[in-house]
Amino acid sequence: MNTMALILNTNALGGAERSIIEQMAPLGMSDRLTVFMPRLNSSSDKLNDFILKNLNCCIKQFEVPVGFYSLSRQHSFWHFFRAVLSLISAPMMVWKMKRLHSYDSIYANGNKAAIWCLFCLFMTGYKGRVFWHFRDYPKLNSLIVSGINFVKRFSSFKLHFAANSQSVASLVTNVLLDEVQVIYNPIKISSFVKAPTRHHRIGVVAMLAPWKGIHEIILFAHLYEKELRGLGFKEVGIYTSDIYQTQGQHQNYIEELGELSRKFPSTLVKMHFDKNPSEIFNELDILIHSSSRPEPFGRVIAEAFGYSVPVISTALGGAGELVKDQVNGLVYQKYDYTGLFENIKKIATDSALTQKLVAEGLKTFNQMNQSGLDAMEHFVGVAA
Question: What are phi and psi of 275, to 5 degrees?
Answer without folding.
Answer: -85, 150
